[in-house]
Amino acid sequence: MERKVTNEIKDEPGEPMVARSKMGEATVSESEVKGIENLTPTEKKHLLLQLARDRVKDSSAGPWEIVDIFRENWRTIKATLSQPIEINVRDVGRDALFQVSLDITQLERELETQ
């Protein structure tokens, strides 16, 4: 039987959002990321999934602190309207600074405002 590979997000009202990497190898909760309250729900989802993937590679990753958020103007990428976002994050546990780049689509923005 073939295993289904997915990225899971648990977002219950009143509970911190939690991302689980593929195959459930690692999880990251928004409570582990200082400054995450400045992100939209879609941005949180994408960032948490990236951090969960990073934790799979290195289990000592985290907790994290958002240092800067840069949102660019909307632009068309392969016939899809998207907004590039760069988030500078400090991995407090490893004392390392890195950047996460996301492209949030217009559809994702519309879904989060409904």
Oligomer: single chain
- Helix/strand/pairing class, anyone? alpha+beta
Mean pLDDT: 82
- Given the structure, what is the number of helices? 2
Q: Radius of gyration, Cα only, in angstroms? A: 15 Å
Low-pLDDT runs of 5+ residues are: 1-6
Strand fraction: 35-45%
- Into which percent range does the helicity of residues fall? 10-25%
* Coarse shape: globular
Note the run of SSEs as H and E: EEEEHEEEEH
- The count of strands amounts to 8
Let me know the largest β-sheet.
Answer: 5 strands, mixed
**End-to-end span in angstroms?**
38 Å
Structure report:
By secondary structure, the protein is of the alpha+beta class. Strands 4, 5, 6, 7 and 8 form a 5-stranded mixed beta sheet that branches. A 3-stranded antiparallel beta sheet has the order 1-2-3, covered by helices on one side. The longest helix is centred in the middle third of the chain and has 17 residues. The N and C termini lie far apart (38 Å). The N terminus is likely disordered.
List the helices and strands and how they pair.
Blueprint: E1 8-10, E2 18-20, E3 27-29, E4 33-34, H1 41-57, E5 64-71, E6 75-77, E7 80-91, E8 96-105, H2 106-112
Parallel strand pairs: 4-5
Antiparallel strand pairs: 1-2, 2-3, 5-7, 6-7, 7-8
Defining traits:
alpha+beta, disordered N terminus, 21% helix, three-stranded antiparallel beta sheet, 114 residues, 2 helices, 39% strand, 8 strands
